[in-house]
Amino acid sequence: MTKAQVGTRQTVAALLRKELLVELRTLESVPGMSLFAVTTFVVFHFALNKGSVEGDLGAGILWVTLLFAAILGVNRLFVADADQGGFDAFLLAPVERSAMLTAKLITLLAYLIVLELIAVPAFSILLLGPPLGGALPDLLAPLALADIGVAVIGTLVAALAVHTRARDLLGPLLALPLFVPIVIGAARSTAPLLAFSHRSAPAGHWLLTLGLYDLVFGLIAYALFDFLLED
Amino acid sequence: MSALAVEALSRHYGEREALSGVSLELEEGRTLVVFGPNGAGKTTLLRVLAGLLRPHSGEVRVLGHDLPSEAWAVRGRVGLLAHEPLLYRELTARENLRFHARLHGVAPERVAEVLEQVAMNNRSDEPLRTLSRGMVQRVAVARAVLHDPELLLLDEPHANLDPAAVELVAPLIGPGSGRTRVICSHDPAGGLKDADLVLGLRAGHPALLAAAANVASEQIVELYR
């Protein structure tokens, strides 16, 4: 007799709980990502030989740093599952496979939010000229749209790379070109918020571009993910 | 009714043939023991039967369903005890089993029950990485039977277990469990005692397939020469 399939929501909840427990015990991803971002800002602070940055330069530094920090999390996303048999255990269970995509995507998204809670204030203190306070509400939209894109692409790439011997190299090599449109969209939409004078809201068309990019890769990830888990 | 029906199964990894021309049939509630030296294809056979690897040719029918096309119908009905325990080292035994219980839609009370059955309730709240290999194997046995599977796929199930632990897990994965079992073994005497059907593999090819009653220990030993 066929076993009743476990609900997707229940499966996602089980996977998320496991992800949280593993991360809290190992502290392998979020602290590393945050430390990397803060250290990079410190390096920029001294290397640029400028008291502060603003506008395009500020936005570029912020987003490049966030994306490189995100790569650290992407690289670790499936390692415990691949090395400790989590994939096999999951594949043996009567569950919807897309539940793992959803759970990993939410996990990576949560890592990015925690990263930004640390990195954005650090960026503001160490590098940014104009105070960030007033621009913060407008910054939420580019941050959210870029995070979703990074989480979707990161999850897809991590699932692809984790089964290879060169996963630490392949992950960034695959992810970085796909992250370029996100850097462009996020930096262009953030730059007006970080300007000393004529501060304005993020350009709507760049936010729309980010949203469309997220949607396209969301659909691609949903269509491909099952095949990435299979033999 | 046949729990397993395999016909001309082949599977390769790149150029290397891991399994070739394997055919067998096993009735419900019976035990197949697979012998063969390292690299003979035993683990590959278990992974194909579990639906984790696709056969490259031949037909595989597990619990009445064709693999891989009907693998969804077999999921949750197979218990796999592999070389790897399929448990997270940073989680405790209880946390690991609760996670698996959720994935299989099993009541949480069952976790305490199986932990008791493998005598791990006293150490169930310690991270797995702090436990001995034998203890981890006991937790892996608990994980494999947690969802009451109809078919057990056991890859050297007594590895790392002391004689007392072997007795302890016998009601769960032994002949008395009442489940259909496929066991990979290197122990001719112990394996033959458990078996209804014996499959001997050599370099992926079936070198022996016979009812256990018609197989002598020497024939098994011969597979390793």
- Count of β-strands of chain A: 0
Shape of chain B: globular
Assign a percent range to the helix content of chain A: over 70%
Helix content of chain B: 25-40%
The poorly predicted ranges of chain A are none
Beta fraction of chain B: 25-35%
Order of helices and strands of chain B: EEEHEEHEHHHEHEHEEH
Overall 3D form of chain A: elongated
Structural class of chain B: alpha/beta
**Rg over C-alpha atoms of chain B, rounded to the nearest angstrom:** 17 Å
Tally of alpha and pi helices of chain B:
8
Assembly type of the shown chains?
Answer: heterodimer
Q: Could you explain the architecture of this structure?
A:
The complex is a heterodimer of chains A (231) and B (225). Chain A is 76% helix and 0% strand. With 231 residues, chain A is mainly alpha-helical. Chain A is elongated. With 225 residues, chain B is α/β, with parallel strands linked by helices. Chain B has helices at residues 42-49, 71-74, 93-104, 109-117, 133-145, 163-173, 188-194, 217-223, and strands spanning 2-13, 16-27, 31-35, 57-62, 65-67, 78-81, 151-155, 180-185, 197-202, 205-211. In chain B, strand 1 (2-13) and strand 2 (16-27) form a beta hairpin. Chain B is globular. The model of chain B has no long low-confidence stretch (mean pLDDT 93). The A-B interface holds A 2-6, 10-11, 13-14, 17-18, 21-22, 25-26, 80, 84-86, 88-95, 230-231 and B 50-54, 72-73, 75-78, 80, 82, 84-91, 95, 99-100, 102-105, 127, 143, 147.
